[in-house]
Amino acid sequence: MRADAERNRARILAAAEEVFAEQGASASTDEVASRAGVAIGTVFRHFPTKDDLLRAIMKNLLARLVDEVGALADADGGTAFYRFFASLVAEAAAKRAVVELLGFPVGSLDGFTDAVARLLAIAQAAGTVRADVGVPETMALLTSTVQGALHGGWDSDLQQRTLDIVFAGFRPPG
Known about the structure:
By secondary structure, the protein is mainly α. The protein contains eight helices and no strands.
């Protein structure tokens, strides 16, 4: 890909992430083109359909989340699980993109699920998460809590109270 085409693609993705985070998946590609400073034809040359554009955004977001998990796990595995969970809920309350990542058919979430599984295993080894908690339960709670934060309009106090309850269920007894 030529350098100018790569720059256009990057500008389109950055603009699209902003637009879709603000307005959700129903946002217009015309708005994306306008914010990126390109013609609508340029958007469609890179992303033939709106779904292709959404998939590219979600793929980038997934990659960033997986990187975030890796950095957190390396920094402090015992509390990283809880910090990541809380940051995802807070981001969902502010940005629709996270919720749509968990609900939009982007293909495989294996990389993301594997990253969450890694954090879970580290936290369990550190004794900060119960040994009987599995990845399916964790993903179900993560998805539902993120959905609630977005659709319920949770403020930071409600986020914290809800996370306190969810986290109490993750913690070992005693």
